[in-house]
Amino acid sequence: MESAARRRLESIGRHLLPPRILSRDLHLNPVSLTESNAVGSSPVIIGGMILDIHAKPFTDPVPGTTKPGEVQYVSGGVARNIAECMSKLGTRPFMISAVGFDMAGEMLLRYWKSAGLSTEGILQSKSIRTPVVSIVFDSSGELAAAVASVEAVEKFLTPEFIKQFQSYICSAPMLILDANLHPKSIEFACQIAAAAGIPVWFEPVSVKKSTRIATVVNYITCASPNEKELIAMANALSSRKQFKFHCESTKGQRQSVESLFQMLKPAICFLLDKANWTVLGGCHMNLWMKAAP
């Protein structure tokens, strides 16, 4: 019997890929068959590999002192997380990222290799400080504070570095970019994909970085914002900054999905209207919503 995961993957494929490319054929890209035989055709994902440090106290944190609790090291980074999930669905993604020779970098690469995934596109250098995000939660698991040190993604994943893997991008069924990348790198990767007819998935990462879609919107096939990122994206493309989002709760209960979409509908329609509906093999721009943290 076909698994639920497989059915969901097929559904996503029907939305994201041109009609001539079936999701069951993600390993094959008819646009560039000759090159894919030589290089291999895998989804290409460019962005951060980040070590997340999660600290959760048993009772609510108090400024100026320590509290008993749990601290965990977690492999993270939006691009890395997507790649890992894809690998667990049976795809062999090609990851382009950067880490250092420090403890965080060694930990991330050790896990990556243990999963049997390629490290060819991952730059490791003594001059790189591996991206790390330190997160403090409250006792209920909600975010209380966080510090992110992810400058290496912008600094080292340059257009020049990405160009080394142009053949992989041109033979991929899809290119996925996370917005931790420098805007010039995002644009450069999009241009490579557009020239080869490759669909591009833009993952906004955060409210602030989601606005980086502004210069590449006509290249994007799919975006996956949460509510706040979606509003930020729409405002980045609107000269009037007209879109707002207020998530109100009643007696601890969030608004219904239907009411949220009604509230977000103007921004969604605006984004879809701003996208180039004929770019990349006729794919429409799709918005896949994820829940805001």
TrEMBL record:
Keywords: Kinase, Metal-binding, Transferase. Pfam families: PfkB. PROSITE patterns: PFKB_KINASES_1. GO terms for molecular function: kinase activity; metal ion binding. Coiled coil: none annotated. The keyword Kinase applies. Gene3D superfamilies: 3.40.1190.20. Residues 62-238 form the Carbohydrate kinase PfkB domain. PANTHER family: CARBOHYDRATE KINASE PFKB DOMAIN-CONTAINING PROTEIN, ZGC:136858. This is Carbohydrate kinase PfkB domain-containing protein.
